[in-house]
């Protein structure tokens, strides 16, 4: 089995961070988003991955080569951002086996071992999450056996509450790429994009049975607000804690938080839901619901719902900020928190 991971997008919803960092390498819970998915593939025993790259591809490829040398990695460049079908189409030269297709906009809690037990006669699996706000998503309509019959984008009527999360297993890869070629042969929709889900519809219309499977959790990493929400989830579950190599003096901590080695905090009210990465210095400040990137210095600040890029400097800032790497921001000094009262 091989995995296909499209990574070519510019991540415009995460600017300014993605001006210098490719979206898959944006850090959450102290690690790049991509790493959580690649670890899942290792655990599943997948050894060969096709990465569809584009924007800042050199950084993506260097990270994969350095951190995941055990993968047999293939890279193909998506020169034109023409949608998910266009991205996956580029992986066809390596697609002569079963395929797992994953997107790195989200983290998920899914039982990927289902691909080992899928009965004969099924062509694949689409994982889905039941949601109440179904109008925001592409939803999967199923028959009585749980097989996909169609996918409806942002329905106005409650035809289904099973949201498509962008995680797919395809056993019949030949029919998939036949469907992709068909999708690419007709004019795109109003957005100018070709959608992979239309290729799945092509498969179903020709008799393929694609099973829907539930996920326990589905966490968006595609924009600032949801990135912070997903950071909160990770701190609550697997990524919280204070490293013994961190220094904390006269601090009040409200968990969950993550404080990495080399961080130094003096007279700080921290938390809840804050990741402080390695080498960060924070003094005379209060911070909640935020991520503070590696090597940043924060003094006399009251921050909430903020992302501070690595190696940034903040002094006397109050409120919400969204700063890319190597930024500087000077504000009016507010009252520093009195942690000894």
Overview in brief:
The protein is α/β, with parallel strands linked by helices and 341 residues long. The protein has seven helices and 27 strands.
Structure notes:
The protein is an alpha/beta fold. It folds into 2 domains: 224 residues, Spore Coat Polysaccharide Biosynthesis Protein SpsA, Chain A, CATH 3.90.550; 91 residues, 3 Solenoid (UDP N-Acetylglucosamine Acyltransferase, domain 1). Helix content is 21%, strand content 34%. The protein is built from 7 helices and 27 strands. The strands form 5 sheets. Strands 14, 15, 17, 19, 21, 22, 24, 25 and 27 form a 9-stranded parallel sheet that branches. The chain has an 8-stranded mixed sheet with strand order 5-4-1-6-11-8-12-7. A 6-stranded parallel sheet has the order 13-16-18-20-23-26, with helices on one face. Helix 5 crosses helix 6. It is elongated, with a radius of gyration of 22 Å. The termini are far apart.
Task: State the end-to-end CA separation.
Answer: 60 Å
Highest CATH level, the class of the largest domain = Alpha Beta
Helix share, percent: 10-25%
Low-confidence stretches: 334-341
Largest β sheet strand count, sense and barrel closure? 9 strands, parallel
* Tally of structural domains: 2
Q: Assess the beta-strand content as a share of residues.
A: 25-35%
Number of strands: 27
Mean pLDDT, all residues: 91
Query: Which oligomeric form is depicted?
Result: single chain
Identify the CATH homologous superfamily of the largest domain: Spore Coat Polysaccharide Biosynthesis Protein SpsA, Chain A
* CATH level-3 fold name of the largest domain: Spore Coat Polysaccharide Biosynthesis Protein SpsA, Chain A
- Tally the helices: what do you get? 7
Q: Rg, please? A: 22 Å
């Amino acid at each position: 089995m091989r995995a296909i991971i499209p990574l070519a997008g510019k991540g415009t919803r995460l600017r300014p961070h993605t001006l210098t960092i490719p979206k898959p390498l944006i850090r959450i819970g102290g690690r790049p988003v991509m790493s959580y998915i690649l670890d899942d593939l290792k655990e599943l025993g997948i050894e060969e991955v096709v990465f569809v790259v584009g924007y800042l591809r050199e950084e993506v490829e260097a990270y994969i080569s350095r951190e995941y040398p055990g993968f047999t990695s293939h890279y193909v460049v998506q020169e034109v951002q023409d949608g998910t079908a266009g991205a996956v189409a580029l992986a066809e030269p390596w697609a002569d086996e079963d395929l797992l297709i994953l997107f790195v906009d989200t983290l998920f809690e899914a039982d990927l071992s289902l691909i080992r037990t899928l009965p004969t006669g099924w062509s694949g699996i689409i994982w889905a999450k039941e949601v109440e706000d179904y109008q925001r998503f592409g939803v999967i309509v199923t028959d009585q056996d749980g097989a996909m019959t169609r996918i409806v984008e942002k329905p106005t009527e409650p035809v289904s509450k099973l949201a498509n999360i962008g995680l797919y297993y395809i056993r019949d890869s030949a029919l998939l790429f036949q469907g992709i070629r068909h999708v690419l042969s007709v004019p795109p929709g109003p957005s100018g994009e070709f959608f992979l889900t239309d290729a799945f519809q092509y498969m179903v219309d020709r008799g393929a049975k694609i099973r829907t499977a539930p996920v326990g959790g589905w966490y968006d990493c595609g924009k600032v607000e949801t990135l912070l929400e997903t950071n909160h989830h990770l701190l609550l579950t697997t990524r919280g804690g204070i490293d013994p190599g961190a220094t904390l003096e006269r601090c009040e901590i409200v968990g969950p938080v993550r404080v990495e080695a080399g961080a130094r905090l003096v007279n700080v009210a921290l938390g809840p839901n804050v990741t402080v990465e390695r080498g960060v210095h924070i003094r005379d400040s209060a911070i909640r619901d935020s991520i503070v990137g590696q090597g940043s210095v924060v003094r006399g600040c009251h921050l909430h719902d903020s992302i501070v890029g690595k190696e940034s400097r903040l002094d006397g800032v109050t409120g919400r900020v969204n700063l890319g790497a190597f930024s500087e921001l000077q504000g009016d000094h507010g009252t520093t928190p009195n942690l000894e009262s």
